[in-house]
Amino acid sequence: MPSLFFTLREKITVKDRSERVGIGEIEVAESSDGDIELDRVDVCPEVTAGDAAFEDLADPIDQRMVKNANLLRALQMPGPMKVFAVQQRDELRMLQEIVPGEIDQALHRFGRIDRLKRQCRLSAADVGIGPLQYGKKQGLLAPEVVIEERLVHAGPSGDLVYPGTAEAVGRELRGRGCQDGDTRAAGVSGPVGQFPDRLGGHCGYITKRLVIRQLMEIRIQSVTFAGQLARTRIPFRFGRVTVTEAPLVTARVEVSDGRTATTGHSADLAVPKWFEKDPHTTAGQDMRMLFASAERAGRAFEGCEGTPFQIWCAAYADCTNLVDGFGFALVERAMLDAVCRNAGVSFRAALERELFGFDPGVLLPETAGLRSPALLAPDPPSHVLLRHTVGGLDPLKSDEVPIELRGDDGHPVALEEDIRRFDLRAFKLKLGGDPDADLPRLTAIARTVAEHAKPRSLFTLDANEQYPNLGELANLLERLATDPDGRILLDGLAYIEQPLPREQSFDPASEDDVRAISETAPLLIDEADSSIDAFSRALAIGYRGVSVKNCKGVFRALANRALCIVRGGGAFQTSEDLTNLPVLSLQQDLTTLAALGLPHSERNGHHFFPGLDNVPAPEAEAALAAQPDLYEYQGERIVLKIRQGRLSVDCQHTTGYGCSSPISWSARTPLEHLAKELPE
Predict the structure, then answer these.
(1) What letter does residue 493 receive in the DSSP assignment?
(2) pTM given for the model
(3) What confidence score (pLDDT) does residue 41 get?
């Protein structure tokens, strides 16, 4: 029997043929032990002509109100609370029907509401109710009814609520004349209806909005990891290292809701020299550190119980830096995937219904009161503009491509080839930290784009912590402004990403420079976004943006979204993740940015890694069958389907977290064995 948590805000009227009495707002709030309690009753008399239920439109208007000067009527105000308690029990049949009677579910065995105790508690309201009850009729006017239900099963066919609850609420609404009693939707609304009063006669019932919030409780049964080496088609310059292969790590999380065990997955490329830029470690050592991060996260999550957000909060206490964050984000996404699959809903639908129990105010107190539905883009995009990354060593012209980079797959290598093939309109340009070297490189890129791309292309700059101070960056921008090609770039420049080393990013002494540069282009943090409050600290000294990367965490991205809403003033999020590869990593990242409504995204993994070659062939075929909007055949290879520089994000609608196609676990190698294949 799942526990029920109700938050009801309602107006009640009690009526006979000669009087109506209105009371203020009643709130039935969540309690720690799961019992239903009346938290408060506002009993100040008020004019209720507009709020009274329209039982009899013939009643004179002066019978629809309580006159403030009428003390005798004011004395009647405690009574309706008792009537309301009886209506909870009798009219809504809450005990008999809304609370299913299953007592064998392990997750709630000791936390369930004792039905007899609740019956007795509500029955206590019967005392003294007679003077109001006999010969009178009760009506319930509900501008908004919100039912928060802690569920252990979502029911068949993707029902929003536990089937017993859905049926009971639906029957009650339909019986009361509401047009829509279907509780599969997040909101149920209906006009004024007539329903039979149990004491005889009829009274009116208005439901403007019924919201059933589903808070799923789970237990993390197991967390395991495996992977395979993903090989590049051309060398991939990443920070201080050149990569020709990197491990693609997959997480598998099994959750139980007390009835059903469900498995979820996630994946990320473990690239060196981003999470940690220690020049004294090798690429192999960095990859093994990321493996260790995953294993630590698995131990922190395994065995935890509660809502997904409660579990994450408890586990994330052990996450102290970006390297740790890699593993914790992997487990988090696999957990969310399992929860969505268990409920039979998409990631967006889970947020709309508050399935995860996410509360940004727990992480950032100034966002208290915002709930996950308010964080979603009202009109989710169907496509996202692909922002092509141009590294410091990437060839710009076809005749610049050395023979060793010219493969036999017909895939573009030079920037001008990518523009022609994919009709690119947006570009992310890497900076090296030296204005004298960056200036000619940027102007050459701007010329190439102007020659081959559509007018008014979008540009962003990424320094990857390379600039020692903001004075040098300001010098670069000033020199670009005096160059004809540089002005093309500045005219389309949206923002500049992570100019300073992460440890210098929040230095108050840099505030004047941050704000001065932001007059040309706002600054955002990426590598410096290593803690829950990082974005808040960055905003305080003039930064405006923060990157969204699934490898940094989904709940953290949602919390930063809440901060953007609360702060306003041009605070924004961007999608930045060069190394997302199909299938899991790419589709989950696309699903996140679609939920947040981000219009463009750094998306360049396909340039270095050949199509879907790095996942087992059956998975590639299944992905193509499930998402023909996102993949297509090019010759004998399945590749990304890019049209007009855009990618489809229809994967956001699939059941689960962005990916419904099957995952072949047996085709992957356990991390302890994969670690032996890495370079030293």
Answers:
(1) E
(2) 0.74
(3) 33
